[in-house]
Design a protein that fits this description.
This protein is an alpha/beta fold and 358 residues long. Helices cover 37% and strands 25% of the residues. The protein has two domains: 5-101, 2-Layer Sandwich (Beta-Lactamase); 107-316, Rossmann fold (3-Layer(aba) Sandwich), CATH 3.40.50.300. The strands form two sheets. The protein has a seven-stranded mixed β-sheet with strand order 9-8-10-11-7-12-13, sandwiched between helices. The protein has a six-stranded antiparallel β-sheet with strand order 3-2-1-6-5-4.
Amino acid sequence: MAKIDAFFKLMSEQGASDLHLIAGSQPILRIRGDMERVRYDEMDNDALRAMLYEIAPEEKVKVFEETGDIDFAYEIPGMARYRANFFMQKNGIGAVFREIPQNILSVEQLGLPPVIKKLAMLPKGMILVTGPTGSGKSTTLAAIIDHANRNRRDHIITIEDPIEFVHKSSGCIVNHREVGIHTRSFSSALRGALREDPDIILVGEMRDLETINLALEAASTGHLVFGTLHTQSAAKTIDRVVDVFPANQQEKIRTTLSESLRAVIAQTLFKRIDIKGRVAALEILICTYAVGNLIREGKTYQIPSVMQTGKQYGMQTLDDAIMRLLQKKMISPEEAYSKCEDKQKFVPFLNRAPDILI
């Protein structure tokens, strides 16, 4: 048993999502979104480095010594997997661990809209799951892949850095590939995947032009491609994809995207007030013919209006999703107000009027 495992046990007992170990500071847990210090001595740099190196693969330690940053996954059998990031900071070494539960929650258990299941069964196209870091994108994607794994008879390839949720082959064959261990990069793995008879490809992060271009190519040639981006709304996601490309290619990319994109799921996490835990509010854009035209014509600013009138297709705006959670008394009016788009709509739910609408 590694010395650091005691902190992971504490994470589990406290229901924490993240563990921060930083030289010169006490250990810190993120519990229901809030940072809470652990009653423990400040971490000494040399002692912390020895503790962290005990669980890091040797090749990762070499990369860290050269670059000052690494990502990898660590697993405690019977407890959980952890996404680890080591970094250097002013007082020495630091590390952040995100817990990845061993049990994958289903679409129903997460309370996701029924349209999510339909997306998992599409024959081809691109589906993007977006949101800021820590918004639950991986959890939502895991539920979608799990539904496909149980209900389809296909080949699923996941490309991640590092591997997070592990899917056991059920109806589908599932192959997990980790960047830096099983493949050199997202783009090289994607290039190889097209020769590996895939039906579904999960790209853990669409970081650069080459990866996005290859993912679009895969989606337009008969594969179902899932990817993530760090954007906060459906319309901004489309703009982000287009803006990655040089200006002289953007018109062509808009056309390709209008034909290949099937849906964008943009999510935001909220603390629950009814029970312990957090819940996601999902903005869902379904790429209908009308949406495709707006993408092709560069009129993404009109997409929110189309979403308002496209509820029969499973579309919903972020504010509608937040309002639903608020009316179910799952989240507080104050947090709903702080994260919504149309502030005026949520003012009547506040205990006191805000000083300024921001």
